Amino acid sequence: MKRRDFIRLLSISSPAVLCSCCALQYHPFQKIGRLFHPDHDDSDAGGEDFAEVKAPETAPKLTPQQMSDELLKDARAKSVYFSQDFPDDLFFEGEKFDHLKALTQKFRAVQRHVGNGNFNLVGIDDFFRYTQYSAGTEKVTAKEKAFLEELFFFDATKYGFYGDKVFHQFTDTIKPKEVSKVPYTGHFLKKEDSLPVYEKITKDIGKSIILTSGVRSMAKQFHLFMEKGLETKGNMSKASRSLAPPGYSFHGKFDFDVGRVGYGLKNFTDDFAETDEYKHLLDLGYIQIRYTQQNLLGVRFEPWHIKVSSNS
């Protein structure tokens, strides 16, 4: 039986049926059936934003002397040369890197368990519970939980990230009733704020533009940030130049990413800024980019990242 069929079965089964078999006794996975039922046959969609982790980093490399010169003359140097290792970058080593690797595997397992699209709305408490039911993984240990909390409450300026914190509680969640799934994308947008903006964009630009990442839960942002941490071999400052640390992503509120249909990994590189779709976005006038080329937040230029305010 396919996962999506199992999800539907759970969503329509009566309590009596569920209680009649110990294999179907209540556990948090049943919430997926009630709250995250897909509008279309796209329950495994929604993994496109992992391209942001895997996208090629094309920033030029600097020699030590060039690095020193650039840092002295321009506060944006680290954002411009985002793929460079800098002398004061913060690395996770030893036990911290071991936790990073182990937890990334568990996030991957839970994502496979609930489906890529559904994973966008999984809170951190549910993540802890889902590890009990995800094939090939073990429960999150007390040390790993403490590591995640430390990571969440860590002062991101020590990475060199100067954006605002969006979530202030480790267990903050996204309420399913506040979001709507965008058909054929596997992603969700806030009904009252983000969805009208996206619908207006697609109406004005046409079918060549697509949602590549919408609302992200706490577990999803942890996963993306940790995947990037592995990509950078534990350089978390370098990771934060491409992905907001957990709690700091505006995907947790209103923002979303768009891309050009069929453009693949290039949607998460500067190449997107050369597309007609991006030029049309700028021409529309009502669109703002969260991380511009001139930003001083310690974040690379993200032409794909749409800034949405609560009063848009």
Could you characterize the architecture of this molecule?
The protein is built from 14 helices and 6 strands. It is α+β, with helices and mostly antiparallel strands and 312 residues long. Strands 3-4-6-5 form a 4-stranded antiparallel beta sheet. Helix 1 crosses helix 3 and helix 7 crosses helix 12 (218-231). The longest helix is centred in the middle third of the chain and has 20 residues, at 95-114. The protein is globular.
Structural class label: alpha+beta
Strand content: 5-15%
State the helix count.
14
Helicity range = 25-40%
**Shape summary:** globular
Largest sheet: 4 strands, antiparallel
The count of β-strands is 6
Distance between the termini: 43 Å
Radius of gyration: 20 Å
Level-2 CATH architecture = 2-Layer Sandwich
Supply the number of structural domains. Answer: 1
CATH topology title: Muramoyl-pentapeptide Carboxypeptidase, domain 2
The SSE string, one letter per element, is HHHHHHHHHHEEHEHHEHEE
CATH class: Alpha Beta
Low-confidence stretches: 5-41
User: Which strands sit side by side, in order, in the main sheet?
Assistant: 3-4-6-5
Summarize it.
Helix content is 39%, strand content 7%. With 312 residues, it is α+β, with helices and mostly antiparallel strands.
Secondary structure elements and pairings:
Blueprint: H1 3-12, H2 15-19, H3 29-35, H4 51-54, H5 64-73, H6 77-80, H7 95-114, H8 116-119, H9 124-130, H10 142-153, E1 179-182, E2 187-190, H11 194-205, E3 209-213, H12 218-231, H13 236-240, E4 256-260, H14 276-284, E5 288-289, E6 305-307
Antiparallel strand pairs: 1-2, 3-4, 4-6, 5-6
Helix pairs in contact: 1-3, 7-12
